Amino acid sequence: MKTGKNGIVALLLAVGMISNGQTLCAANNSEVVLYQQDAKELVDTVERTYPDFIDGDIPKGYEQAKKDYLEQSSKKVTIEDFKNLTRAYLTSLEDAHTTILDGEMYTLDIDFVASKDTLYLVDDQGRQTDSKVIKIGNVTVEDLFKWMDKHYPAENQIARDYMHADVIKGQLLLKAAGCKVEQDVTIQIENQGKVSEKKVQFIKYHNEGETQQYEKGIDTQLMGDILYIDLNTCMLNKEEFEIQVENIKKSMEEGVTKYIIDVRDNTGGDATFCRTMLEEMGMKYPEFGYTFRNSPLTVEQRGTEKSEGLEKEDSILTAVPNKDIQLAVLTNEKTFSAATMLATYVKDGKLGTIIGRISSNAPSFSADTVYYTMKQSKIVVSISTSILLRPDTKADQTMLVPDIMTEPGEDSLQRAIKYLNEKK
């Protein structure tokens, strides 16, 4: 339990939030190699796969980023430098699902919050303090933010603040951004004009070989007259899926009318179960619109018959709530992909109440990824093949704003329990 925190588009893998485990590379980290052909072939693959290149709705910075990437890749560089060149190129698409599959094993053992391009320490409750972090290692926070904004995509301001506060702590990222990093790093802190220093250790994200921070993909618990559904991931195996569907059916038969679905920290997976949960609660959800691009990679990895062309469906806002069910869905900054879709179904279809924090994933976003491995460097890249449009096309397309916003450090679960208990 967390205490702090349609066919062609069914499989939504959340790969944009910094995956775990290291990409296998062909070269030694310090070896200088020419990766020019890898760069050319990646650009060709992206432009044959990504849907925006048919619609012509390419971000304005893309062409310059492409030019810079091909030019800089014409010189010998280390594998880490080539990764960063590739990150900068992909970031120009402004899509958190289109990215290098390369993650951090170590992170700084400290919590930050970012607001208005400033980095702050937090107190024991996760609330912002007056202590500003002005330097990490030998690099100013201002310069670190600029480097991150060039190399990591952000779909909205919440995503940018999340990157600045959380992703910034990664050991590999800090090294790539020019920080002198060892087993620890010194941070400079300013408070009321006084500057102090603090050494912070790196710790493992997870134990070696682990890819998750939860014991179960999904768990249910009856809290009084409320069924709490702790949905940690949307990548459920068949057995988990069927057991939880039966749990929901049983609860409905036993007269449970209040439900909480917790998708805080849920980075996505397959949206099918999300839709099935709503159906089992007697609800009809609205439909996302989508544009899907067929390509050689979709033929190979998704079994599509066509290797080119677009398939489109419009958004459908029509939805039917169950008037006998009171539903709350909990979100936070790390709610992503299929988990964001669940909250968007509920928000746009007026099926329940969203409680918590704004997701770093836009409710209209690119997804439905395929994977491409560069021949020489062996770097693996995920590439979106779909553009998903939220059912309510008149609503904000970049941010899913909860109906009830919680404060930083506030327990959204307790807020939801209180909210449902006060409802008749």
In words, what does this structure look like?
With 424 residues, the chain is an alpha+beta fold. It contains 12 helices and 20 strands. The protein has helices at 36-49, 52-55, 62-72, 79-91, 141-151, 157-165, 171-176, 238-253, 272-280, 296-302, 338-348, 412-422, and strands at 11-12, 99-100, 106-108, 112-115, 118-122, 128-136, 139-140, 184-191, 194-204, 218-223, 226-231, 258-262, 269-270, 289-293, 310-313, 326-331, 353-356, 365-373, 380-389, 404-405. The strands form 4 sheets. Strands 3, 4, 5, 6, 7, 8 and 9 form a 7-stranded antiparallel sheet that branches. Strand 10 and strand 11 (226-231) form a beta hairpin. The radius of gyration is 22 Å and the shape is globular.
Describe this structure in a few short sentences.
This protein has 424 residues and is of the alpha+beta class. 29% of the residues lie in helices and 25% in strands.
**C-alpha termini separation:** 26 Å
Give a count of the beta strands, DSSP E runs of length 2 or more.
20
Number of helices, where a helix is a run of at least 4 consecutive DSSP H or I residues: 12
Helix content: 25-40%
Low-confidence stretches: 4-27, 207-212
SS class: alpha+beta
